[in-house]
Design a protein that fits this description.
- The structure is a single chain.
- 5% of the residues lie in helices and 57% in strands.
- By secondary structure, it is mainly β.
- The protein has a 14-stranded antiparallel beta barrel with strand order 1-4-5-6-7-8-9-12-13-16-17-18-19-20.
- Strand 19 and strand 20 form a beta hairpin.
Length: 403
Amino acid sequence: MQKFTVMLLAVVFSTASFAGGYQVRLQGNKQTGIGLIGTPLAYGSSSIFYNPGSLSFMEKNWHFEVGANAVLATVAFQKSESNYQAETNNKTGTPFDFYFAARVNKLITLGVGVYTPYGSSATWESDWAGNLLIQEIALQAFYIQPTISFNIKDVVGIGVGFVYAYGTFELSKGLNYSGGSSARLEGTSSNIGFNVGLFIKAGDKVTVGVDYRSEIILKVTDGDAKFNVPSSLQSLIPVENKFEAELPLPSNLDFGISVKASDRVLIAVEMNWIHWSVYDTLSFTFKEAGDLLDSDNPRKYKDSFIPRIGVEWAISEKVVFRGGMYYDPTPTNEDYFSPETASLNTFAYTLGLSYEPVEGLSLDFSWANLFGQKETKNYSPDNFGGTYQTITYIPGLGISYTF
């Protein structure tokens, strides 16, 4: 019984996204097109997420932006020492962003952003081989960030944003009892954090950016747990229960440089340090039957470093092309790799195209293709393992207007 409990709770928050861990970096379609690079760039109000310091370098006094993406991800699995195969049937993820910014004067620019930097979903067949680990899981985190940015002599930009985060999750899994036994957990949480950035215009052709987004801990204090178990077990496992748990949304430290190679071509590089090591152990406390259900579950994530490179080419005054690539190593621990954390070492390329039909209005198309490398992984607590491979397609569209 205790083994079942650990397995159930270990999957509550350990979701897999299209990249390492459960982080989503699709917070601006221009930035997506150039390799998801934004720290050393000043693309207007979307700098609220990527680097608040560059917000004060937007070209005009007002800037609006809205964007969305469709995340089409598939995980393929083959069980160890078997011909058994399975594949996810994931729902389409739809991360979005909305930004607004206004220049108050030469020194100060104000803005606000609403975006979704963390989230994931995975849907397996209800009777697949790993159904005792996971059948379906969904995680979403929504951020609201008011921001102030200071422009110092058109050379240095310093910005800071206050972040309010709200998260939701749902989980379903099978239980090793009579046919149809299952568990479902749901919860919500909120907390606060910050985003601070520095932007330096080192001459006419070089810009440098540094950004730090703080860790935020989402604590569920009144989550709903429902168990569908045989009546003979209901005296031990309450059909309905409440629980407490927490999930860390790790801090990020980003550094980037952009160089104008010519009047029409810009080259950018960036490094992201994701502090996944904060995700060490999941602890759960239940309101009822705590002696049986409470548990501490090691995750042992490690920090990851993501290198990126991108190019922007202004084909004409109305059309701009972008392309990029990056490598995203998995932060997961090899001894605790489970189907809901199908985060693999990933190579990716991106493309983008901006078209300005009228002055100030930009239509921004983006595309990302991610290839999770085929690897054999194991979840040691349940001796469940096999070979995983992932592929993800992400088309996106953004609209911005400045005046």
